[in-house]
Write a structure and sequence with these properties.
The chain has about 400 residues and is mostly beta strands. Helices cover about 5% and strands about 50% of the residues. The protein has a ten-stranded mixed beta sheet with strand order 5-4-3-2-10-9-8-1-7-6, with helices on one face. The chain starts with a helix and ends with a helix.
């Protein structure tokens, strides 16, 4: 997907070769509508992915459907037409692309001298108007795995794109679950020699070039646990074409954590650059951020206090690799803070509320793989089923 954006979305000083009129109105009449990618000279385009371009209201919208799910990727950029050129700028850079429009066959070819991309006019994007103009909550599917009844954490796998790792709350059996972007069960991983107490969040980290899932056994409602734990689970390749797999994992490393200032209840874990973890406490009027550096040789580490945030009851958090914003939530709202890579901490002065519709005991939150939106997942409470939801992050898309 990133390669496609680099080749097509980055575009952008486009040469239009077949339009008889140069004015913008004529161009919009010719090109308006939805175009689906049908062929490409690039071997980087995955056959599982269908890409779309939409020209509407003086803007170019780019979309993709991945693994059959509703739209998860949307970007719009204004364009202009002058002297036979369609001008369009991305991240302050201009490029040249030639375009060839075949009116009779309703096909559009983009050529950047390295690869070409052929599109066909289509009307097959579901909920197009809602996705573009109503950037609200999108229900991706019912959580069909009955054993996930108290989902407390979620994270999007980078090693297995299209897979979300999740887990149950306190008192759960030693396992985690992989679900797809429809909420369907793909795999459960049983964890050997793990005596879980109160797992509250899940994250990802690379250590020594290897991919690990971090399971945070950090819940402590009464702040009485003398120590809490992180489990380092080697992440394996998962066949997403299969469902309801059950696998056992060994060689799981347990790291003991102690707070520098006494016991805390916490339900939020994310990973930071330089092999650091971040934990956000829950019970204080202003929740507290703690960090610690870990390695494959870590047995016990101290969580160091860094800062307060003016939020109470934080229950989930996520920061994407090299992402621009830390997101976190309590039961009522989702918040974001711009992440400062110089201090390796969020900037509390950038705190803002993001779109969220409260769920029954909603605790699980994570970015998608490109920080263009976030997933949420709730527990099954009060007779309600659990659903996987997605929220477009319009502040990023439309900038």
């Amino acid at each position: 997907m990133r390669i496609f954006w680099a080749s097509v979305l980055v575009c952008i000083f486009l040469q239009f070769t077949s339009c008889e009129k140069d004015d913008l109105k004529a161009w919009q009449t010719e090109i308006s509508g939805v175009w689906q990618l049908t062929k490409s000279s690039s071997d980087k385009i995955d056959s599982l992915v269908a890409y779309y371009l939409i020209f509407e209201n003086g803007q170019i919208y780019s979309m993709n459907h991945e693994f059959g799910q509703p739209i998860l990727d949307l970007h719009s950029i204004e364009y202009s037409v002058n002297d036979g050129l369609l001008s369009f700028q991305h991240d302050g850079v201009d490029f040249d692309y030639s375009w060839n429009l075949n009116r009779k066959k309703d096909t559009l070819v983009i050529d950047n001298k390295k690869n070409w991309y052929k599109f066909a006019r289509t009307l097959k994007i579901p909920d197009y108007e809602n996705i573009i103009h109503e950037k609200g909550r999108h229900n991706l599917g019912y959580l069909e795995e009955n054993d996930i009844d108290e989902a407390s954490g979620i994270v999007a796998s980078r090693k297995n794109p299209g897979l979300l790792w999740t887990h149950n709350d306190s008192g759960s059996e030693p396992r985690i679950f992989g679900i797809d972007y429809h909420g369907k069960s793909v795999v459960e991983l049983w964890l050997d020699n793990c005596d879980l107490i109160d797992c509250e969040d899940i994250a990802l980290m690379q250590l020594d070039g290897r991919d690990f899932i971090l399971l945070a056994d950090i819940g402590d409602n009464d702040a009485k646990r003398p120590e809490v734990f992180i489990y380092l689970i080697p992440e394996m390749d998962i066949d997403l074409s299969l469902q309801n797999q059950s696998l056992a994992l060994t060689n799981i490393r347990k790291i003991t954590l102690n707070y520098c200032d006494g016991q805390r209840d916490a339900e939020s874990l994310t990973t930071l650059p330089n092999n650091e973890i971040m934990i956000i406490s829950k019970r204080e009027e202003s929740n507290r951020i703690y960090t610690a550096k870990i390695s494959l040789n870590s047995d016990r580490v101290t969580l160091n206090y860094k800062m307060d945030i003016p939020i109470k009851n934080t229950v989930g958090a996520d920061l994407l690799d090299q992402g621009e914003m830390l997101i976190f939530k309590n039961y009522e709202k989702v918040y974001g803070m711009v992440f400062d890579y110089e201090t390796n901490l969020p900037n509390v002065y950038t705190l803002k509320s993001m779109h969220y519709e409260p769920e029954p005991q909603g605790e699980a939150l994570c970015w998608d793989l490109e920080e263009k939106g976030y997933f949420t997942l709730s527990e099954e409470r009060f007779g309600n089923e659990a659903f996987l939801y997605y929220y477009p992050y319009s502040a990023f898309w439309m900038r």
